[in-house]
Write a structure and sequence with these properties.
CATH class of chain B: Alpha Beta
Shape of chain B: globular
Number of domains of chain A: 1
CATH topology of chain B: Hypothetical Protein Ychn, Chain: A
Largest interface: A-B, 23 and 20 residues
Number of helices of chain B: 4
Strand order of the largest sheet of chain A: 4-3-2-1-5
Order of helices and strands of chain A: EHEHEHHEHE
Distance between the termini of chain B: 22 Å
CATH superfamily of chain A: DsrEFH-like
Largest sheet of chain A: 5 strands, parallel
CATH class of chain A: Alpha Beta
Largest sheet of chain B: 5 strands, parallel
Oligomer: heterodimer
CATH superfamily of chain B: DsrEFH-like
Helix content of chain B: 25-40%
Shape of chain A: globular
Radius of gyration of chain B: 12 Å
């Protein structure tokens, strides 16, 4: 089955990103497909590579990046939510005249159309949030 | 046609679970996750509401979230089934759609 996942919450607010990650991992282990993970609202904060949690804490950004690499996942960060929260890729940094970008490996910045498409293409869209 | 409803907030904090139980249809599935698992505690204030809902729909609770909150299997309401993340995936696949009560 083809799943799409939407995450509305940052990695250190409550538990949404953790639950979504565990769900995605379990789905992949069962042979399901993850069509896309869409990071919306504060969820975009999962996609900055400048996250440096203590060594004994889980690093959700890294976990998502590794899962994306292993399973060729499409991790999409909402552009409007990202701009508000200072999540930039190289193109956006240049366009906005900023001195650097911080998008994490495996993540890409795009628009809400990607969420709509995921809702249409996937068999199930599951939302995790606050 | 059945819906998997997920509830992730404590019923003592928000009314998401109460709203959810007020909207479920016969044959639907309800999965309590994150702080939502607190509702499934035996002897809790929401035991009656869950017991009443059990007739029409099936109630599940996520085991790792119970364990993280120190709630043992013996503390869970009877008739509420515990599942792991794999079970969560199976529930999402078996229902025709998933509704998150955020």
């Amino acid at each position: 089955m083809r799943f799409a996942i939407q995450i509305n919450e940052g990695p250190y607010t409550h538990q949404a990103s953790d639950t979504a990650y565990q769900f995605a991992k379990a789905a992949l282990e069962k042979g399901h497909e993850i069509f896309r993970v869409f990071f919306y609202h504060d969820g975009v904060n999962n996609g900055t590579r400048y996250t440096v949690p203590p060594q004994d804490d889980r690093n959700l950004q890294k976990l998502w990046s590794e899962l994306a690499e292993a399973h060729k996942l499409d991790l999409v960060v909402c552009i409007a939510a990202a701009q508000r929260r200072g999540i930039l890729d190289a193109n956006e940094a240049k366009r906005q005249g900023k001195d650097g970008d911080n998008i994490a490996p495996g993540f890409r910045i795009s628009g809400l159309g990607q969420l709509i498409e995921a809702g249409i293409q996937a068999d199930r869209l599951i939302v995790f949030g606050d | 046609m059945s819906t998997l409803h997920t509830v992730n907030k404590s019923p003592y904090e928000r009314n998401a679970m109460t709203s959810c139980l007020g909207h479920v249809s016969a044959g639907d599935l309800v999965l309590l996750i994150e702080d939502g698992v607190l509702a499934a505690r035996k002897g809790g204030s929401f035991a009656q509401a869950l017991n009443a809902a059990k007739g029409a729909c099936k109630i599940y609770v996520l085991a790792p979230d119970l364990a993280a909150r120190g709630i043992g299997a013996g503390d869970v309401l009877e008739g509420v089934e515990t599942v792991d993340y794999g079970g969560f995936v199976d529930l999402a696949a078996s229902a025709t759609r998933v509704c998150a009560w955020l």
